[in-house]
Design goal:
This protein is an alpha/beta fold. The chain has 13 helices and eight strands. Helix 4 packs parallel to helix 6, helix 11 runs antiparallel to helix 13 and helix 12 packs across helix 13.
Length: 292
């Protein structure tokens, strides 16, 4: 899995129609776009995929569609997480993991568990999951940080906890994980803007939002960084620095859906409580797209 999850993963959006139903023809176009663009693996039903607004039948429909359409040419990671440990366990037990390579599981949100609570949550998941687990640390959304100490404790204790998607923005924390992690444990950037800094201290790549639109360019960045050519990686990344800020100016996935709709890949629909970006932000996105 270390080799299969190195480089560029894409946090795939879920396209919707105007009536809020899933737009599978648009999902076909998007999948073709990112696969042809060279992403290394797919991450579905994550934050960018608006998974919290999908019911269980819709989630399975998306999973089955992605597997069938891509013919499992790429590894597929599926988001399964929540703030009720027993409910997450029930989801895992009822999920069909044929052709699924791993689980991305966000830290329990809202409850604000202690470090011991986080450890016990993931220990319980590790004992149940039939596929490897990627921890997902995004304290800006969850209200709780998986510390370096907790990450390392989990990484050393459970062979099937294989990686962490780090979106804390705390490089010192990430460096501490890199220093003392098991050799085959992966640190994956969860922040497009910090891909190169994280990879420079031992990160394996990124699970990217921007790669929905520009997979080939972000593959260039991760390939160069993995080869140790950070000057080349930075030269490509600089072209997207302003755009990355714009993608998150009105929240994710509003920004990337605006870009993808401008590209004609999907329609610009989100499910409530999310709404499209403001018109002034969309105008700035259009202007920056022309520059890129």
């Amino acid at each position: 899995m270390k080799d299969r999850l190195s480089g560029l993963g894409v946090a795939l959006v879920t396209p919707f129609r105007q009536d809020a139903s899933i737009d599978f023809p648009a999902l076909t176009k998007l999948l073709d776009h990112v696969v042809e663009g060279g992403v290394n693996y797919l991450v579905i039903l994550g934050t960018t995929g608006e998974s919290v607004t999908l019911n269980q039948d819709e989630k399975m429909a998306v999973v089955n569609f992605v597997i069938e359409h891509t013919d499992h040419k790429l590894p597929i990671i599926v988001g399964i997480g929540g703030n009720n440990t027993h409910h997450v366990i029930d989801q895992i037990r009822s999920f069909h993991f044929d052709n699924i390579d791993g689980i991305l599981s966000v830290a329990p949100y809202y409850n604000k568990p202690t470090a011991k609570g986080l450890y016990e949550h993931y220990r319980t998941l590790a004992a149940t999951a039939p596929v490897p687990i990627i921890l997902y640390n995004v304290p800006g959304r969850t209200g709780v940080n998986i510390t370096a100490e907790t990450t390392l404790e989990l990484a050393h204790a459970f062979d099937n906890i294989i990686a962490i998607k780090e979106a804390s923005g705390n490089l010192n924390q990430i460096i501490r994980i890199a220093k003392d992690k098991p050799e085959d444990f992966l640190i994956i950037s969860g922040d497009d803007a910090l891909t190169i800094p994280i990879m420079s201290v031992g990160g394996a790549g990124v699970i990217s939002v921007a790669a929905n639109a520009w997979p080939a360019a972000f593959r260039q960045i991760t390939d160069a960084a993995l080869a140790g050519n950070f000057q080349k990686a930075a030269s490509v990344h600089y072209c997207f620095a302003t755009m990355i800020d714009l993608l998150f100016a009105d929240g994710n996935p509003g920004g990337i859906k605006a870009v993808l709709s401008e590209m004609g890949l999907i329609k610009n629909y989100l499910r409530l409580p999310l709404v499209p970006v403001r018109e002034d932000v969309r105008k700035r996105i259009r202007e920056e797209m022309r520059k890129i």
